[in-house]
Specification:
Elements lengths: L2 H20 L5 H5 L9 H20 L19 H22 L5 E4 L2 E4 H27 L5
Antiparallel strand pairs: 1-2
Helix pairs in contact: 1-4, 1-5, 3-4, 3-5
């Protein structure tokens, strides 16, 4: 893996760890509690970010079918926070395998009919994860006062 790609992956891994930290130690009600009018909650953020990982890396980069998560932040009541956390970790692990197999940020990737590269995809996922990690920070603080990364 090139140094540039390693740096991008390390940045993404740090954001992923932050999201997992913000969802650790919650009960099911807390994970689904929304503190904002949109209804956004931590369980929903996990489900959505799992989809983001699967969609961008499995589907766009690897050319397979996205296999995890849902775009929606509405979580089936039968799906536990534990399962959501496992699925997110699994999706991130699979994404990292794909990143490593490509090995170079400059490798061409087709995105909606346009030529991009893995660097562009990495930055798109970093941006999406960072945005939702910020949401998770605020929601977790509103739930139980926990702050920090």
């Amino acid at each position: 893996m090139t140094p540039e790609l390693q740096q991008l992956r390390e940045a993404l891994d740090g954001l992923r760890a932050g999201v997992l930290k913000k969802t650790a130690g919650l009960n099911e009600d807390e994970a689904r509690r929304s503190t904002v009018p949109s209804g956004t909650n931590l369980a929903g953020l996990l489900q959505h970010l799992t989809f983001v990982e699967s969609r961008w890396f499995e589907e766009v980069v690897a050319g397979a079918t996205a296999s995890r998560g849902r775009r929606s932040m509405q979580v089936d009541p039968a799906t536990s926070l534990r399962v959501l956390r496992v699925e997110y970790r699994t999706a991130c692990g699979r994404s990292n395998e794909i990143i490593e197999s490509v090995g170079d940020a400059a490798t061409a990737v087709a995105v909606k009919g346009k030529q991009r590269d893995l660097r562009w995809v990495m930055l798109a996922v970093i941006q999406e994860t960072a945005r939702h990690a910020g949401h998770a920070d605020i929601i977790r603080e509103q739930i139980d006062g926990q702050t920090g990364r």
